[in-house]
Design goal:
about 20% helix; Cro/C1-type_HTH; Immunoglobulin-like; single chain; XRE family transcriptional regulator; about 300 residues; 434 Repressor (Amino-terminal Domain); four-stranded antiparallel β-sheet; 13 strands; globular; 2 domains; alpha+beta
């Protein structure tokens, strides 16, 4: 897989990544359809042409099966194109609270991992605060993250929460969960392709409406992955989000914060962050809306 294809698999959009992968393969649409037919999958040249041009997107179950086979034919990591589709557009009245985003839209490769883990429906917890503290060691290549969640129950008998993590580049693995504090570790699942992970944290006691709890957990980020940004995805409003970054070794020359309304799209509210002499910087974002808030840097 060449560098250009790897890059657009990270950034999208879907049609650009699919087009680049087909071009890099050297296969005509007719030969692609033939390769799929050899696997017992029928898809028309017109459908693939529409997908790569952005005129339409695969949505039906049989189309998603074909897309997964297409990834294999093109030599792409499993779910790398599927992840760029995000969540399916709703066709009817949904049950998600207004002003929120689906976890399956924000963490597309985690969708199947969430099946059976959502014993507590998404929306029975308010996130009063989320804090991420990261150490990026240039000498050892170590990247560690400690996350603190301040939660409030919006219903009675809420006994758990679920967190999702996913890497941008399908080539690199998901973060490793090192431990959790102030809760018990429940089920942990990872995708076969290795880019995503979901974990269930069980509260020491069920919370009733209006009761609060605090959870902390530690991650080791994928080693060897070129890292020039970090960001947090929010499916619902958060009272306060903070990020603390410490660079060990040569610090970057410039650090900026940015927001996005969803998982992808134009960056908004781009601002420079002050980087101290000790290689540390912080971002404090009150009243965060659903979408993403991140920090990127240049060396």
């Amino acid at each position: 897989m060449n560098t250009d294809v790897r890059r657009v698999l990270r950034t999208g959009p879907f049609e650009v990544a699919l087009d680049a992968a087909i071009e890099a393969s050297g296969l005509t649409l007719e030969r692609l359809c033939g390769r799929l037919s050899d696997r017992g999958i029928t898809v028309s040249r017109t459908a693939i042409s529409y997908w790569r041009s952005g005129r339409s997107r695969p949505e039906r179950a049989e189309s998603m099966v074909a897309l997964s086979a297409l990834e294999e034919v093109l030599g792409l990591p499993a779910a790398s194109l599927v992840a760029l589709l995000g969540g399916r557009k709703p066709r009817g009245r949904g049950t998600r609270p207004p002003g929120t985003l689906s976890r399956r839209e924000l963490w597309p490769s985690c969708g199947r991992l969430l099946t059976g883990l959502e014993a507590t429906p998404d929306g029975q917890l308010d996130y009063l605060g989320v804090s991420d503290a990261l150490v990026i060691d240039e000498h050892t290549g170590e990247r560690r993250q400690r996350t603190r969640l301040v939660l409030r129950a919006t219903a009675d008998r809420v006994d758990r929460c679920v967190v999702c993590h996913e890497t941008d580049d399908p080539v690199f693995g998901a973060p490793d969960l090192l431990g959790v504090a102030y809760a018990r570790l429940g089920r942990v699942r990872g995708a076969p392709e290795g880019r995503s992970m979901v974990a269930e944290f069980l509260f020491d006691r069920p919370l009733n409406r209006g009761e609060d709890t605090v959870i902390e957990y530690d991650l080791r980020l994928a080693q060897g992955q070129p890292l020039d940004h970090v960001y947090r995805r929010f499916s619902r409003p958060v009272g306060l989000y903070t990020v603390q970054l410490r660079f060990v070794g040569t610090p970057p020359g410039r650090v900026r914060r940015y927001d996005r309304a969803g998982l992808r799209g134009p960056e908004q509210h781009v601002e420079d962050l002050w980087l101290g002499a000790a290689g540390t910087t912080s971002l404090v974002a009150p009243s965060v809306r659903p979408g993403t808030v991140g920090v990127r840097w240049e060396r």
